[in-house]
UniProtKB/TrEMBL annotation:
It catalyses: UDP-N-acetyl-alpha-D-muramoyl-L-alanyl-D-glutamate + meso-2,6-diaminopimelate + ATP = UDP-N-acetyl-alpha-D-muramoyl-L-alanyl-gamma-D-glutamyl-meso-2,6-diaminopimelate + ADP + phosphate + H(+). This is UDP-N-acetylmuramoyl-L-alanyl-D-glutamate--2,6-diaminopimelate ligase. The keyword Hydrolase does not apply. PANTHER family: MUR LIGASE FAMILY MEMBER, UDP-N-ACETYLMURAMOYL-L-ALANYL-D-GLUTAMATE--2,6-DIAMINOPIMELATE LIGASE MURE HOMOLOG, CHLOROPLASTIC.
Length: 485
């Protein structure tokens, strides 16, 4: 049968009592008894092709936006896609309203900033969770996600689970893809955080202008009640200038002047395991210690602290636990080797992120700085020579290797990277990633630092269409043990 939007709520209540419905499901393969299957248009196929399968698996109700069906369990609602965000939120009892919610977007730093918000809330005695690249849930017990930002239907289910578990604060990454694809439709965040904008995802967005416009959507009254923006980023400054939202800013102190609500930093001193710096705020100046590597992590921490202030936490309380923050898995994660050199695993896979990671480690490196990295196949090819050039300029020795080559030839990708480097550059090509890492570590000497960039927290290497198990963090721990013998 086909219904219009006005009769939908009455139909929903009378034909299929709400008590019989156990959840909303977008994937017919995951439908179970009592669930509602949402048969929507997909990238390659419409979900209506799987209605029979969903019913056979026990679906109590199917909602779709087109077609005609005699089965009363299948309801056709032409406006389904417009109504679904509110329907999904209502089905799960509007969980976002029962949580303090921070949304974090930007090219780099989303995962770290989200983790820092969650850690700070936890350290202050509040149960907290994250949703993002590394998964969803409490830190240390994350459930993997296929996308950085899940579809709003899945998101409402996840948030409802958080509410049931007593979570008070949730920090989630919101990608540019998610904003364009409306995966956070119907959400209203307490605070939206912007980290930075640098070259990435141009194979999807087409231009930096479109990429920036996608990010900017989050900083509107439609999605957020307040904004936290990095003024040490060029796009961030433009975003702040046109902000329609109550605004908090952060960054280097010289960039924050002229704003009434700010967190700035200066007087940075780098040590072997972190930083000391002066934090400036309207309440006064503070000398703080951060057990983290990379100046960008200083900015990520300030973003997180700013978000906590917007959520109503006292600055003095937040600053009292800053020195207890820990590294996000695969983000500037430090490994000490017995030969008195160190290795750092980082997810950096963009030109800017790679350059920032190398520049950051230079401050912690009394010896030579090594860089092991590659570029993904079937992705933005234009960034490959750029990353090669930046690696040459900021590292003392570079080893080019594989990083999710997908359908492309690994050696071709490596040569694309090398094409951006000068003929006399200090680099080697070793297509086997484990061999490349071992080569760098066996060559390193006391005082050296080896950056291993690109994979970070990931646990697979994509070669062709095959996802091969590959946990770089576990491999480094294994090498630390082997090289201690």
């Amino acid at each position: 049968m086909t219904v219009n939007s006005k009769s939908w709520l009455a139909l929903y209540a009378s034909k299929v009592p709400e008590t019989t419905l156990t959840g909303l499901q977008l994937d017919s393969r995951k439908v179970g008894p009592g669930q509602v299957f949402l048969a929507l248009p997909g990238v390659n196929q419409h979900g209506k092709a799987f209605i029979a399968q969903a019913l056979a698996q026990g679906a109590a109700l199917v909602l779709t936006n087109e077609g005609h069906y005699d089965d009363e369990r299948v309801v056709v609602l032409p406006e389904l896609q417009q109504l679904l965000p509110a329907l999904a939120a209502g089905f799960y009892n509007k969980p976002a309203r029962q949580l303090q919610m921070a949304a974090v977007t930007g090219t780099n730093g989303k995962s770290s900033t989200s983790f820092f918000i969650s850690q700070l809330a936890s350290l202050l005695g509040h149960k907290a969770s994250v949703v993002g690249t590394l998964g969803y849930g409490e830190i240390g017990a994350l459930t993997p996600l296929p996308n950085t930002t899940p579809h709003y239907v899945d998101l409402q289910r996840i948030l409802a689970g958080f509410v049931s578990d007593g979570v008070a604060v949730t920090a989630m990454e919101v990608s540019s893809h998610a904003l364009v694809q409306q995966r956070v439709a119907g959400m209203l965040f307490d605070v939206a955080v912007f980290t930075n904008l640098t070259r990435d995802h141009l194979d999807y967005h087409g231009s930096m202008a479109e990429y920036g416009a996608a990010k900017a959507q989050l900083f509107t009254p439609q999605f957020s009640r307040a904004a936290v923006i990095n003024l040490s980023d060029e796009f961030g400054r433009k975003l702040a200038e046109r902000s329609e939202l109550p605004l908090w800013v952060y960054g280097r102190m010289e960039d924050c002047r002229g704003f009434s609500r700010y967190l700035g930093y200066s007087g940075v001193n780098a040590g072997p395991d972190g930083y000391q710096l002066t934090l400036h705020s309207p309440q006064g100046d503070y000398r703080v210690s951060l057990p983290l590597l990379g100046e960008f992590n200083i900015q990520n921490v300030l973003a997180a602290v700013s978000a906590m202030l917007v959520l109503g936490y006292a600055l003095a309380d937040v600053l009292s636990v800053l020195n207890q923050l820990s590294t996000v898995p695969g983000r500037m994660e430090l490994f000490h080797f017995p030969q008195r050199f160190s290795a750092v695993i980082d997810y950096a896979h963009t030109p800017d992120a790679l350059q920032l990671a190398l520049q950051a480690l230079r401050a912690h490196c009394p010896g030579r700085l090594w860089c092991v990295f590659g570029c993904g196949g079937d992705r933005d090819r234009g960034k490959r020579p750029i990353m090669g050039q930046l690696a040459e300029l900021t590292a003392d020795h570079v080893i080019i290797t594989a990083d999710n080559p997908r359908s492309e030839d690994v050696l071709t990708i490596c040569n694309d990277i090398a094409s951006g480097m000068s003929p006399d550059a200090a680099y080697q090509i070793e297509p086997d990633r484990k061999a490349a890492i071992k080569l760098a570590l066996s060559s390193a000497q006391a005082g050296d630092v080896v950056l291993i960039a690109g994979k970070g927290h990931e646990t697979v290497q994509i070669i062709g269409t095959e996802q091969r198990q590959y946990d770089e963090r576990a491999y480094l721990r294994q090498l630390v043990t082997e090289m201690s013998v």
